[in-house]
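Deliverable D5.2: sample structural annotation.
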Amino acid sequence: MSISKARITAIGSYAPKHILTNSDLEALVETNDEWITQRTGVKERRIASKEEFTSDLCIQAVANLVHTYNQTIDDVDMIIVATTTSDFNFPSVACLVQDHFNIKGTGAMDLNATCAGFAYALHLANGLVTARLNRKVLVIAGETMSKVTDYTDRNTCILFGDGAGAVLVEYDEHDPSFISSHMGTNGGGGIHVYRSGLSEVMQGIPLQGCGNIVQNGREVYKWAVRTVTEGTTQLLEQSQTTWDNIDWFVPHSANLKMIESICAKVNFPFEKTLHSATYNGNTSSASIPLSLHTAVQQNKLKYGDQIIIYGFGSGLTHAGLLIKWGIKNLT
């Protein structure tokens, strides 16, 4: 059982204005709306402009959080940004966020756990705050996946979009959010979804893609369904609870068909999942906070709800948390 002393107190998000629909993709690759929808559930995705980068999306998400909840972030003492598409190799996106808001006296770091990044960042923030190493952590997940997508590859370009989400994690020993956590890695499966870089081979296999995403969707699908099923079981056993007590399931929005398969495996109603794939596509680490914030805006997600979030992606890596939603409803 958790000894957490950290609570999620505010949330914000941002998605670029430009929309790329399934119909738009018909002009780029051999595909159509029916084919994409049946296989992924994605109808459209938001795309950053040439002048818009991951730090810009993250800054907008934080600004949305500050405005919506009338929050002060001058006293934030750690910024964690989960991303795989940073503006530069260095400086980090977290440093760019710190500079924009002129937050003095804060640490700043980027974390790369791909599509599991938001769950990993929350896990880290909870640990830092519970250990009293920090008192107020700004956790951000932001991606510009469109900048690393090959729009001649119909197997990947139909999936990805851009966006960012942010939450505040603060010290609260009386009303903590974090109940249990579970994570794991299967590095041997990294060859099934990667973005090539300096190395030309992985596990002795020549790489493709020239810096863009390459994915073996079938293998990732099978791994994800099996792994998330097992991981959520671990979360529930740790907390000595069952799916009957879970209000919402929030998996990474990779593909709605995949989420349906996971729900069927664990016998949880798909209608009680929160996702962002339909109108945002697969936004990697940003998909879970986008799903959460959308649910807050739609008045679905309420203070005190018990939720399971579960991220999974390249690495292959995965992480999940059982959380009591700690954000008080706005009046």
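Annotation notes: The two ends are 33 Å apart (CA to CA). The first strand starts at residue 6 and ends at 14.
The annotation will be released with the project's public dataset once the embargo ends.
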